[in-house]
Amino acid sequence: MNIRLAPLRSPVALLTGVALLCAALAGVLAFSGRAHAATQLGKFTITPTTGSISTYPMITSVTTTAGCPDDTAGKAAVLKVFNPTSDTTQATLGQGATKIVAGSGPFTMDITTLAAAKSLETRLRTWIPDGSLDGTYTLGLGCGGGTDVPVFLAKVRVTGDTWSLLEQQPTTLALTADTGVAVGGDLKLTATVTPAAAGSVEFRHGDTSLGTAQVTNGSAQLTVKAPAIAGNTTYDAVFTPADADAYAASEATAPTAIAYVVSAKDADGNVLADKPTLHLGQTVKVTADGFAAGATAQVSVSGSNTTFADVSADTDGTVADYSFTVPDALSNDAHSLFFTVSGSRAEFAFVSTDEDTSSPSPSDNPDLTVTDEDGNTLDADPNLEPGQKVRITARGYTAGAAVKVALAGSDAKFDDAEADSDGTVQKYAFTVPKDLADGDHTLTLAEDRTDGHSVDFAFTTGSDDPSQSPEPSASASDSGGTDTGGTGSGGSDDGGTTGGGTGGSGTGGSMAATGARIGALGLASLAFLSAGGALVLHMRRKGLLTFGGDTPQHH
Fold it and tell me: Whole-angstrom Cα distance, residue 372 to residue 406?
């Protein structure tokens, strides 16, 4: 009897076959699924911490940082390595020698062989057939078999034929920030990493990132602009290691104080030096910058019961040209004018006095005092002699500033001066150059920076009384007061009195000159008469000239 099979013409049969094939493929994909689908429970360490990549099993025991979930109790813990190239597959390296205990915390477990397990080298060559195996690889300890079980992680680094456990070292970050920097000034932030791991540090102020700096020899620095509002504030820093497997990230915070910018001018608009001396009742204009826009500040003076009205900052956060009058009852001492907002305050320090504060220094300049070598204060625009030494005290400079000294119109070189912590150049020794020409001169002591403070000392050399004129010479006096001008030839006794008594009048000199001219004419006439007489006598002797009754004589 021949039995004939029915042809597979039913669509139902065809669909059933396709479904079975898809189910099989799904099972395969489930087994080799992504490791990241599993829950990460923490980390684990291994013993030993280094070894050969060809040794199997590669380790003897593991220690976890937590326990496995209760629903994995009774299962075997499986040691595996993740595919470094695709991060989608994993392969076994061994299993726990004992079963997982439910409800346990961190545990240590011996590792033994597994029929399907291989050495680390064998597993890696499955994915990297040729070339070096050097690199960093992730190990997993699964709470049971399969790719989606909860897992602990560890990392090893392969170098040549040796592997080593990578244990991430903790780092400590310390942050410092310059303090006392004025609003808008340059503020330096310094972060120090311990141990000195390579990486970068991001600096932050609140939610604002200020920039990132690389760590060099364990340190990273960044200079930023200080905030526009003064007072206490904090900065943050975050260290990111270059090798996150070897070092952990760390953070730090540093407090600092931003200073207000305070200045003052006198009634004439002159900028006052730091901590000036003010007399009682004196009025100055004070400007303080560093407040929030529109902030209201309480005004007070230390050591005074005087009540002052509040003042408001402008839209730039500045209290500008606040008119302050020193209270009459203030003691002769150091005081401060305060502008206080929410516990933060701007300070204008001064010294009050009820004594005469008019400056004895040259040109009434409050920033200049000049004394001679004996300590006597010189007047304004003093007259100095070449080679004379004086001592100059100049005020109003930046604390510790270098001060250049120059004499206008002179090639002479002078030593630089230096301001002290109060911004004062104390008793600078100045010697007037010996070859300095007579006239007006100005010595300038200028801070060695752009827009730096400068003080001028004006003085003169040469005669200090230009109204004096040279005395008459002795010859002029004698010629105007000789007895000759007062003789009788002057014409009268009055002429004699005038010429001799005055001694320098023009009348006596004129008469003397007239008498001299008359005498000269008389002498000339006498000479002509004598010559004429001699000529007549000679001619008579020669017979060339006869008078009536004479007989000519011939020789």
Answer: 19
Model confidence pLDDT, tens digit, residues 277-300: 999 999 999 999 999 999 999 999
3-class secondary-structure state, position 496: helix
Kind and range of the H or E run holding 24 = helix 11-31
H or E segment and range at residue 120: helix 120-127
Q: Is the pTM of this model over 0.85?
A: no
How far apart are alpha carbons 92 and 145 in whole angstroms? 9
Q: Which two tokens stand for residue 196?
A: 């000195």
- In this structure, which long-range contacts are made by residues 161-164, counting pairs with CB atoms below 8 Å and at least 24 apart in sequence? 161/52, 161/53, 161/54, 161/121, 162/50, 162/51, 162/52, 162/53, 163/50, 163/51, 163/52, 163/53, 163/58, 163/120, 164/49, 164/50
> What is the chain's Cα-based Rg?
56
**68-98: b or e for each residue (b if 16 or more CB lie within 10 Å)?**
bbeebbebbbbbbbbbeeeeebbbbbbbbee
- Among 499, 416, 412, 409, residue whose Cα is nearest residue 458: 409
- 483 touches 497 (CB < 8 A): no
